[in-house]
Design brief:
The protein is α/β, with parallel strands linked by helices and 371 residues long. The protein has helices at residues 44-51, 53-56, 149-174, 191-201, 219-224, 254-264, 303-314, 316-334, 346-358, and strands at 2-7, 10-18, 33-42, 75-76, 79-89, 99-105, 109-112, 114-115, 121-124, 138-141, 182-186, 209-214, 230-233, 245-249, 268-273, 298-300, 339-344, 365-370.
Amino acid sequence: MAEFQTHKNDITKTRLVDVGNRAEDFTLGAGEVLAKIERFSFTANNVTYGAVGEQIGYWQFFPPHLPDENGADEWGIVPVWGFAEIVASNNPDIQIGERSYGYFPLADFVKMLPVRVTDERFVDGTPHRTALPAVYNSYDRLGADSGNETDDNLRALLNPLYGTSFCLVDALQTEAFHNAEQVVILSASSKTAIGLAFGLSQIAGDRPAIIGLTSPSNVGFVEKTGSYDMAIGYDDLAALPNKPSVLVDMSGNRAVIGAVHGALGDNMRWCHNVGLTHWDDSESKKDPAAAQFIEQRSAMFFAPDHIARRAKEWGPLDFNQKVAGFLADGMAHAGGWMQVHETKGLAQFEPIYARVVKGDMRAEEGIIVTP
């Protein structure tokens, strides 16, 4: 079994660790199962998991196997979303051969402890995960159906991202868009941003204009998604209408955010900070534009908190149905612009990981890895 491990203090450093290659190499405790990971997606969202792993706890989900004690606290495993097959079971409720969808490590295998098992899903009750956000511990049960690769790829790529998009649409509507006339989305070519723009574009009746800010090379692509009312390059902020605005930032680039805050001034009503497509922001923070960032009208948006609150208010069934409808519509739309590329094996994944971490990835590209 290979684990793809990342250095916690420098996510550009990685290593493959061999800890067993067959199901027989693993010993299961009472109630445990062993899952073989079939396929997973890798996006800028996963880079965010690594970049803020210590602050939010992403490193805690899948503790790595360590070949020695040197630097034991320095290595972690970045979580990914995808599909797995149960290949060994010591749990009477989970059968060998059934598939599941959910949150997995960058590895070939993972042990889990299914609890609260229903026909539709189970929760991984492994003790170290119980205090972590519940949304990451829930797994969909898919039976023994082999699935459809095209649908599985889109689900792996978009479910976690468009789940955040759904939450943002819901939050903005609940907040009455902070009485803004436009929603300005930074890093507009990112998949979560496109999902947000698509969701906003489907609102019936009056709604704010949807403005996408992106790198100059991606303006054409952003326009082609058909979800934005206007796409503007970061080099053309003068074209941004100076109207009451609510911002949603997917980039984490303090210089860019500051420049937009400065351009809008009092018309910048609120800024939801969501992602870190520019995770290494040490240089941009030194840019004079970064000083224009309006901290008093900005806050991090953490989707799991929104999910937990809405699931309690609406009930889990109603919440899941609403999200499922949003995801189905969003994935149908994504079929018109997404280009999915598959890679076989974690060793072959190493250069792709480096590309994504550097931000060297085409906006329309979707990466799927089959370990």
